[in-house]
Amino acid sequence: MYVEGAYPAPITPRALRDYQQIREIQMDDFAALKHYIEQTLKIQCNNYKEDYIKRRLLSRMRSTNSANYEDYLKFLKANPPELETLRNALTINVTEFFRDGDVYESLKKDVLPDLFSKRKRLRIWCAGCSTGEEPYSIAMIIHDFMAHDKEVSVQIFATDIDKVVLAKAQEGIYLQKAMAKLTESQIQRHFIKLPDGNYQVKPHLKELIRFRPHDLMGGNPVSRWLDLITCRNVTIYFTEKQKDDLAQVFHDALVSDGYYIMGKTEYLGRQVEHLFTAKNSVQKIFVKKE
Fold this sequence. Notes:
With 290 residues, this protein is of the alpha/beta class. It is 44% helix and 18% strand. The chain is globular and about 75 Å long.
């Protein structure tokens, strides 16, 4: 016999049916919202982890006082500027100059010397480049190599799905606090201090980089015969299948001895780990296997 207060109240069949109906409505509304996002923003939600998508949506729902997915969908349709805000939330961009300094030390002391010992012209792809700090960091290192060897030349492809952050990257203007990890010498050689206190990347670095929009989930690389691909702290939001598919795309785009650098918290799945050999397992630097 049930005694009130002694145990949780039993779930009646009617309560269970009501709950299931509410869940079905919520899932239908979520599916409708995802479909609208895919149609308008061209972001394939199913390629991201569902929990990640829901967390990002919940954040925007709170900011717009939307009670549920249906309300937020109505808000999106009635307020076009929210679409770009949502795009930025879904393709979240966190970056800085020389993020994870040990990786750049390995790049400078091991990866690039090895590549330049085999050929003087390199092609590099920074995938998911956000506001440009990573490709500009690589360009600074490359510029030092070019200063010591006039035969060296490099082309860096820097891509991102978010056209807003790409525009910022191309502009190359950064706040003073963004200079925190740079030496005074690097700042003086590679940046112009503007009247408002911000810093702009000098032309000699910009000339090394081609910024362009690109969807990593589209199944095609930005180019082929690449010597080095960096895609760091991007795939942590992808499904396992999408991570594996992307690793295959990178493998196919690299030359036979090309390098692939991942984020420190990322990993190669079992289905694709045979495609690469670990050159530096701590820094997540790999070399393509044939």
